[in-house]
Amino acid sequence: MLNFPNESRSYDATRRCVRFWGSDGALEVPFFLEESALAKISAGALSGEQSLLASFDVNRQRILQAARKVYQRRRKGSYELIAADF
Question: Which of 49, 57, 64, 76 gives the lowest tally of CB atoms within 10 Å of its CB?
Fold first, then answer.
């Protein structure tokens, strides 16, 4: 079962996404939330690291819910959340 015990998240400027992690038992599961997806779910989200991380925090439960759905579709090494996932 996928859980999110670690509330860490970081902005990856190269990939233009917010990176966060889940865990499935002993397995660490990396996720990448695209800026465009965050803009879709967070009205008024500005670009820039601090604004995007704040928007992530405000929408954390919705993001984690979408991450669980994406994870259940197919198991792989990492997961990208895009605007269509919301």
Answer: 76
